[in-house]
């Protein structure tokens, strides 16, 4: 990337950082909400895990990664809002007039949400250890190997939806539906073995399944980095496919509306 291109991407990242620091409430809420749900749902998660053969489980082994994955996908809204915000403020054309290319605009809007996603995961898992007695039998490095491509995948879901949605209402509805659908089908709300039989052949088609597979391999089975390479590779494949989709359908000259 040439110096001018890098400078434009850095400028976009700095802007997103300033806006996040000015109003960190969305990040705080998305971090606190999964922990609040855990307070009420941990007994159910414990019963589900013990019914699945994990006799010494306390529920945090399912609840913490499950709620972390579920609420991470609600970050999709925030990713899209960054683009729609520029259109609502009538500053998008200024970015284009400054010479920013489509790839630079996409890259500039990916970096900060990616860092936020990783921070959110770290906060939820850390609070899970401190507040809910989460016991990780495997390697924390292996959790990171899953967390990084998962975060990138979530961000690129947001960018792909932004590319195909024309209004912020469309984005919001699709993002929320996908977050709930991914949570249910991927095993974030309950252990995958307890879900209806018809979900099992469909589950590998959503990234949340691979995220939960990777996290539970480490947390419940004591897995290391080598044991989560397949889930991590699957998440990378999702991220690559979503990136390609974004670059194909994203049009810098398409007007995005902040209303229906």
UniProtKB/TrEMBL annotation:
Chief localisation class: membrane
Domain ABC transmembrane type-2 positions: 25-253
Residues spanning the membrane: 27-45, 65-84, 105-132, 138-161, 173-193, 228-250
Compartment(s): Cell membrane; Membrane
Superkingdom classification of source: Bacteria
Cell cycle among keywords: no
Record PROSITE patterns: ABC_TM2 (PS51012)
Membrane topology: Multi-pass membrane protein
InterPro entries per the UniProt record, alphabetical: ABC2_TM (IPR013525), ABC2_TM_bact-type (IPR047817), ABC_2_transport (IPR000412), Nod_factor_ABC_transporter (IPR051784)
UniProt keywords, alphabetically: Antibiotic resistance, Cell membrane, Membrane, Transmembrane, Transmembrane helix, Transport
Family: Belongs to the ABC-2 integral membrane protein family.
Full protein name: Transport permease protein
Species assigned in the record: Streptomyces ossamyceticus
